[in-house]
Specification:
By secondary structure, the chain is mainly alpha-helical. 56% of the residues lie in helices and 5% in strands. A hairpin with a 4-residue loop joins strand 1 and strand 2.
Length: 293
């Protein structure tokens, strides 16, 4: 099985151009499945539909969430479909296996006042505060994913045009940056970043106090710190700022297609989840603009 797995992961990386996060997710799911097969003394090439169902039941019994189980099934199915396509197997044993129903979660968002309160917290009189101010403003201004932000280099920012070039899953997109965020970025890059970095060849946009590229964990800790400083009771993560970015754009008249492009959603269905926050805003627009409202 190891040889087949290596071929599958090579396919994901080199042909399908999947992101490293996606590949790691596939690896976790399939390795867990492989362990189950070993413990059950079953060969992956002789697995039946019933065996897959038993595996799904085993995941449910140990308390795995429906979303986790659904993702695991999708990973295993992709692997078997790859094997069938390459004539290593005659039939996909996951065929007909249904994923558990997943309850749709309402995205957590901040109000405009809560966003303002959060963004006011960093003390720009010191180096760390300048960086944190730039980072928080940028996150809310662009709606980018945390992995995208920490991967950025200074060269990805076009200050003249007010744009950032972002790459996710081997797809590039360009996102506008507002004036407030641009000014905060300039202050950070001019005054704080040159002192924080230890190596002039380091092109990372956001760095930690040791001069290294900021990590995902470091990013989360910074947001948590300022949430507590602002005494905001809601849970705030980088993704909450991303949800807030999209929702506030929609509430202020932006169209879904534009928001989809800025968020980097491959399917507009993913963007439509924000429509549930638009009801009152749409009613107000209707009342103000329809001649017979």
């Amino acid at each position: 099985m190891e040889e087949q797995l290596k071929s599958f992961f090579d396919f994901l990386e080199n042909e399908k151009k999947s992101s490293s996060n996606t590949i790691q997710s596939y690896e976790r799911d399939i390795k867990q499945y492989e362990t189950y097969l070993e413990q059950s003394q079953k060969s992956f090439s002789k697995v039946t539909n019933e065996d897959i169902e038993d595996y799904v039941k085993s995941l449910q019994e140990i308390g795995k969430k429906p979303s986790t189980i659904s993702r695991s099934i999708a990973s295993i199915r992709s692997f078997y479909q790859f094997e069938v396509k390459n004539k290593m197997l005659e039939e996909d044993p996951t065929k007909g296996i249904k994923s558990p129903k997943i309850a749709k979660r309402v995205p957590s968002i901040l109000t405009s006042n809560e966003v303002e309160l959060l963004l006011e917290q960093p003390n720009t009189a010191d180096l760390k505060g300048l960086r944190d101010k730039a980072m928080l403003e940028f996150t809310y201004a662009t709606g980018m994913r945390v992995t995208e932000i920490i991967s950025l280099n200074v060269s990805d920012i076009n200050f003249e045009k007010g744009l950032v070039t972002c790459q996710h899953a081997n797809k590039k997109r360009t996102i506008p940056i507002g004036k407030i965020s641009l000014n905060a970025l300039k202050d950070y890059i001019d005054e704080a970043r040159p002192i924080l970095i230890k190596d002039d060849s380091n092109d990372a946009l956001f760095v930690n106090v040791n001069g290294s590229r900021l990590t995902r964990q470091g990013f989360w800790k910074i947001i948590k710190y300022y949430k507590e400083q602002a005494h905001i009771t809601k849970e705030i993560t980088p993704h909450v700022l991303r949800h807030s970015f999209a929702t506030h754009l929609l509430q202020n008249g932006a169209d879904l297609k534009s928001i989809q492009q800025m968020l980097g959603h491959s399917d507009i269905i993913s963007t439509q989840i924000y429509m549930q926050f638009q009801d009152d805003s749409l009613k107000n627009i209707y009342k103000k603009t329809h001649p017979r409202a």
